[in-house]
């Protein structure tokens, strides 16, 4: 029951686990939702979705599944064979027939008899009193029935149906594969926290003081520790100019968030790909370049390295010496990138282009290969993936 | 001694193999898998199935490997010394046994669960290498050597938040609980909620036909709501294959089986079908 629904939700990349699914069933067992799709929508969302980022995906999955159900051949057609319901039989069933059915007793027999009857007659067989009495009685059973009196409620047809809650997609904006704001970026970057105590010991360490005082047979022995702070060290290389221009805003956001989040953050610019030099001031780039060798020597391997760029260029800009479009490079971009990659333990590449554009060929494919497939889209989701990789 | 799952736990074949191998070769079993696939539960059910005691050790970010062995409670000793308590002369009184010690010293073989090992510091697994391998350790304060009487069956779970060191991995059997497929999920649901579907379907029908009142129900469902609801509950059974078979004689019994338990249900269902047909 509902397994296909659950799998559909997961296919939409809502990270719901089996336990949450069992919670939903438990809730249904307690009749928290009952014969009401809207209730069921709220309940299933409550059980399966644990973050507002996923609401929109959930809504889409719910819609897809619900439409699938609506398009199922009419359930009733499947349940009850046509002839059972034919009015002529309904009307003409006598008390005897009803008694006969009761005498058949039990569901098992009922179904068995029904199946036998179906086998016995391959063509429709109107009239005989042997036939189909089994089912016919029940539809009007004890309540007594009037053919005209049964129109209860108005049919809520598939066509005139009001917009369902899940069709409104009110949570579109929270979907993390779309937007990126400074706050969001900061939250994502916060994953990359590693608290450490470095520097002068200027805080009293209560636990250690008590412990050592105790060990010292009661003579006070004060212990101090340095203050805790985020000890992660980050190097960011930004691709600037050219094809990166449309992505300026998102890069700015990333930059300002990273600036606030990391105590040790250094940043450099490059154009299209990394070669023998990078620079920190985009205006004076020609005269104030920093040698890439210097960077490798200056920063220790435990710096986390983030490249930000669209990695979109001519393949020879990566693969060939002299491939750079701005200057003559003695060694290929790939060689330089490999050096950086070998020196630092953790390197990721953030790409402002949507993941679906990446592909495996061209400069993008080459870059992905160089970075060991640690390329992430510049979305909240991608950023979180990158930070998780960096902090592993 | 063979583990084949329990009444409440559906173990797939590969999982059974992993568990049985770990038991007979006496290696720790490292279990990874998506959240909610029953990693922790496995140890509990193993213990229940094998009739052993379970000793769970839940790891937190602050847990140290040493705490699993023992801790020296110096603070209590300090307090006792100032109160002049006799206990203070024997350091043994201030050695608090950890979960590993507890498992080592049990008279009968136990299942030791080290839960969410990846929560701890990155060095944590390395600090336990020897202890898990040889099942022994040394207590410095008392110069005492603790060795397992019976090697406990060790189950370790990880949520993959941190990579585990190679040396540690080499000493374990590893099993990844993959997300269950459709059939396994059906088994799991059946184990946890037997007959739930029929119950709900019958309730829906009974409420609809005023056979019974369900407390707390805001309003009686309309016919179309009820039919939508039944479709939702039944969609799994109304598989494409079934729908293709236009021959109702084969389609009918399985649907009945899913929907109804007794003759009264059949009546209700037929009534509903009839109404739906009349309106359509």
UniProtKB/TrEMBL annotation, chain B:
Signal sequence annotation: none
Organism in which the protein naturally occurs: Marinobacter suaedae
Residues covered by the AAA+ ATPase domain: 25-183
Source organism superkingdom: Bacteria
SMART domains hit by this protein: AAA (SM00382)
Protein name: MoxR family ATPase
Pfam families associated with the record: AAA
